[in-house]
Amino acid sequence: IERNESIVYLVECVGEADLELEAHMQSPVQLRELLLELRGRFGDAIESDETAIVFDVIKYSYLPFRAPSRA
């Protein structure tokens, strides 16, 4: 898994999920290929999986654009 260039985040978890990963894909086909690869390599260990597709990440800043001047 560590050698897959699409995976940018991988962490072992405590709680409901044992492992979480984040992958950046260019198409749904690439996502399907990754899921098939993971199921092929670790199918016996995978009880279930969840997929969340994020199309855009909007970043908000609640700080002013510039620091206020000191009087």
Q: How is the secondary structure organized here?
A:
Layout: E1 7-12, E2 19-23, H1 28-42
Antiparallel strand pairs: 1-2
Give structural notes.
With 71 residues, this protein is an alpha+beta fold. 21% of the residues lie in helices and 15% in strands. Strands 1-2 form a two-stranded antiparallel ribbon. A hairpin with a 6-residue loop joins strand 1 (7-12) and strand 2.
In short:
The protein contains one helix and two strands; from the N terminus they run E-E-H.
Element order: H for helix, E for strand: EEH
Q: Helicity, in percent?
A: 10-25%
How many E-type strands?
2
Shape, per Cα inertia axes:
elongated
Uncertain segments: none
**What is Rg?**
18 Å
Mean pLDDT: 83
Strand proportion: 15-25%
Number of helices: 1
Structural class label: alpha+beta
Please state how the strands of the largest beta sheet are arranged side by side: 1-2
The largest pleated sheet is described as: 2 strands, antiparallel
How far the N terminus sits from the C terminus, by CA atoms, comes to 55 Å
Keywords:
single chain; about 70 residues; alpha+beta; two-stranded antiparallel ribbon; about 20% helix
